[in-house]
Amino acid sequence: MTTLTDPPQESFRLSMLLNDTRYRSYTFQFIALVCVIGLVAYLASNLVANLRAAGLNISYEFLGEPAGYDINQRLIEYDSQSSHWRASVVGILNTLLVAFLACVTATILGVFAGVLRLSHNWLIRKLMAIYVEAFRNVPVLIWIIIIFTIMTAVLPSPRAFRGDDAEASMLFDAFAFTNRGVYVPKPILDSGGWIVVITFLLSVIGVFAYRRYATKLLFDTGKLLPMGWPSLAILFVPSLLIFFILGRPIGLEYPELKGFNFAGGINVRGSLIALWFALAIYTGAFIAENVRAGIQAISKGQTEAAASLGLRPGRIMNLVILPQALRVIIPPLISQYLNITKNSSLAIAVGYMDITGTLGGITLNQTGRAIECVLLLMAFYLTISLGISALMNVYNNSIKLKER
Amino acid sequence: MKKTVFFGALTVAGLAAGVAAAGTLDDVKARGKLNCGVTTGLVGFAAPDANGNWDGFDVGVCRAVAAAVLGDPQAVEFVPTTGKTRFTALASGEIDMLARNTTWTFSRDVDLKFEFVGINYYDGQGFMVPKDLGVSSAKELDGATVCIQTGTTTELNLADFFRANGISYEPVPIETNAEAQQQYLAGACDVYTTDASGLAATRAAFEDPAGHVLLPEIISKEPLGPLVRHGDNEWGDVVRWTLNALIAAEELGVTSANIGEMSAAAGNNPEINRLMGTEGNLGEMLGLDADWAVKAISAGGNYGEIFEKNIGENTPVGLARGLNAQWTDGGLLYAPPFR
């Protein structure tokens, strides 16, 4: 019986780095990498040398020192004695807040405008075309300033609400639209309030579970459960029941005129509204075009086939066209979300205190630590952008065409 | 091999750039132009006119230094800087000096490694409110909305003032004076706070200046002055003594009208003679011509003339001399002796 032996292994020679195609690409990549590292190191050492010559250094100690300035919109506790670091965190949260609000609004606007732009109704189609073209082709900064200026110039100041014969009055005695922002009632949680909130959150999960179950049932047995009213019922009935059983533990704090301003309630600032709406309608126009492209990418035969099965137009869109179009829509949508987040740095135009306003604005200015602050800003935006990208890619993978 | 030479050259160039920063005076002479950082536009202090010529109180200092060093008040390259970019521009050597109503503070002087060469305007932070608000003191401003230019010392003073008095406020951060004016007039803020000179200038531009009052409290000291990089003492001396020459000229009665006559020959006041370069060698000590101060004063007149022309009571800004009068007139201006 013969035994099988492995063929003799070819030994590795240094010249193979250049001559062997298996290794050559790595060799050149390695050389390129060394060059890049060298260049970066040179620039960094040059910076450090120049800073030293000027008697300066790179130090992040200023982050621990008291900031000394006040910020009008704070989602966490902050006063002028808090550290620069805390001021940065306030700014980060403000950035995330406006980016989140704008992303949600832009998506809703964009999907509606995109679908309606393909409507058979001439007027609606043209109106949407005007919206898309007008907003897509004017810089977002201009929109931010236009909305902000309109708000400050058109809406009354809190002074106008004062007196028996006031020029302006509150809507339902609960909402005040002023040029400093919109004041809305604020929910106050009593002792049992949290139970209601938790119930509501559980209801939201319940709705998702129900819809999942209904879809599964439809695929497995072909039995179509109603979707609309049970979802609404699951969403609201348990929370309302608990709310009344516990004796209305959630109250509302209404805004009232007090001193110079309205006090109480939640003040949604004019700067936030301007930035939010401007980003939303501007990016919404881009998303509309993505949606239109996605829908048009689906063959007309799909619509016709669905129609021949007897589906109504609304259902064709929801069940046949949009799920397929999503595969085309999602990847460019990710870039639009990134654009919203990055464009939110235009906040300074209306004095919204986002991260560029706190860390990149006042902190930079007061401490003079420009390089440190800008590096931190870059790191922050990079982290946020990669984070959004990663999340959206997970979603994209989940709806991607499954090829088997 | 070639690469080594290339990197070597880069390194040398980098080092040379670092060393060159030390001799600003020689740089300016070699360049034939002074790079002077100013505001992006504040009427009275620094703003370009219709022909693009910069004019104003801070611009006057730049022109005087250029005249003293280069003999030509027009040999200035004005670099507009914002509150945010001003210090970076100076630290990086993009500008040779900064004359941009910048407050002299400890940390800017010590930590940011700058050198304030003197004070060309003594200011303080004030408040302006509409008259119909019925407020007569800043301490009554509890809960008010305050418009404030971000990144300035006024922002820190404001926080300190309200904190010290145990009252609250809501800041509305804005970027420029023009924006603040618009917000304030629209009633988006109850109060506008900035340096008192800025408030006066802003109010003067209103349709109804009488409808707005400046509250009596001046809550801070804002000594505004030109600054240079720390560590280049020769250059610092040139800018410092040019400013002092302008101030001393007013005190000594040297004006742009009589300077030709006074500098032609030595008179009987030794200090004027030393200033004019007809006696002693003060110019040589600075590394400049003997008539450096004559050129500086001829550029736009003495301190008082520059003040009256740009921000004085007969201009739209309309500021009284106040603290900025000569020490002999009860003000704070006091140039050290030229000796």
Automatic annotation (TrEMBL), chain A:
GO CC terms, sorted: ATP-binding cassette (ABC) transporter complex
GO MF annotation: an example: transmembrane transporter activity
Protein location: Cell inner membrane; Cell membrane
All residue ranges annotated as the ABC transmembrane type-1 domain in the record: 92-392
Protein's membrane topology: Multi-pass membrane protein
TM segment ranges: 26-44, 92-116, 137-155, 192-210, 231-250, 270-288, 374-395
InterPro entries membership: AA_ABC_transptr_permease_3TM, ArtM/GltK/GlnP/TcyL/YhdX-like, MetI-like, MetI-like_sf
Protein family according to the UniProt entry: Belongs to the binding-protein-dependent transport system permease family. HisMQ subfamily.
Protein name in the entry: ABC transporter permease subunit
UniProtKB/TrEMBL annotation, chain B:
Record has Disulfide bond as a keyword: no
InterPro entries: Bact_solute-bind_prot3, Solute-binding_3/MltF_N
Lineage top rank: taxon: Bacteria
Keyword Thylakoid: no
Keyword annotations from UniProtKB, A to Z: Signal, Transport
Family: Belongs to the bacterial solute-binding protein 3 family.
Record PANTHER family: AMINO ACID ABC TRANSPORTER PERMEASE, AMINO-ACID ABC TRANSPORTER-BINDING PROTEIN YHDW-RELATED
Organism lineage: Bacteria, Pseudomonadati, Pseudomonadota, Alphaproteobacteria, Rhodobacterales
Native source organism of the sequence: Roseovarius faecimaris
Domain Solute-binding protein family 3/N-terminal: 33-262
Stated name of the protein: Amino acid ABC transporter substrate-binding protein
Signal peptide: 1-22
GO biological process, one term: amino acid transport
